[in-house]
# Entry
Amino acid sequence: KQEVTQIPAALSVPEGENLVLNCSFTDSAIYNLQWFRQDPGKGLTSLLLIQSSQREQTSGRLNASLDKSSGRSTLYIAASQPGDSATYLCAVEDQAGTALIFGKGTTLSVSS
Amino acid sequence: GAVVSQHPSRVICKSGTSVKIECRSLDFQATTMFWYRQFPKQSLMLMATSNEGSKATYEQGVEKDKFLINHASLTLSTLTVTSAHPEDSSFYICSARTGGTEAFFGQGTRLTVV
# Structure
């Protein structure tokens, strides 16, 4: 059964720092991997989706990489801002059309 | 991206009553919808998968008679929490997709049972 782990569980950084969030999954045979942002009490905002054939995706200050063979993904946030404070969730889709399997998330706090 | 609307965003109900949560795909036809629940500081846990016109498939440990899911059309799925109890208080989120395309999420529903 696929399991998704995110490290660290929480992270506090000063504004302007670059940071990396980690995600690992136990079964490397995935269809795609997605990173989400969740603000307290809110739904999910999709940040980046990486297909299994891709190695990375970029959007603005965000860069997500995927190493399928080792079961790892990282989300790199450049020049962090207080508005980046949220919980970041990693999720994998094992087969096309199936439900996403989520990690517990990393709660990020960026101080000004 | 496509829009999935979930309603209500918050609901408070008395113990023993039933609550219905709606999930609508506004600009696409959702052949498959997923229902998740999230406890505080926990991840989203899949409750059930529903395909339009057929019965939902529930994950192990989820009571199908308690959490009734109806996916009667390609744009609407409903989750009814029957005879709600305080332990059912949680954050419920739906997700919708067409075939193997990207899944889109609703805004979530905060259910509080008092």
